[in-house]
């Protein structure tokens, strides 16, 4: 996974093992940054890694 890679919502769902509405809730609450290109939502791979890191630190 490259830092500049853009993931789709289904990609993020698969990587985080979460449902669609949970991923959109994370996007809506700005806990998972995303961009919109046309009508397509994309999440930077770096943002997914940072989300995981932040959640691990918060759980420690």
Automatic annotation (TrEMBL):
Xref: Pfam families: HTH_17 (PF12728)
Record-annotated Helix-turn-helix domain positions: 6-54
InterPro entries: HTH_17 (IPR041657), SinI_DNA-bd (IPR010093)
GO MF term list: DNA binding
NCBIfam families recorded: excise (TIGR01764)
Protein name: Excisionase
Organism taxonomic ancestry: Bacteria, Bacillati, Actinomycetota, Actinomycetes, Kitasatosporales
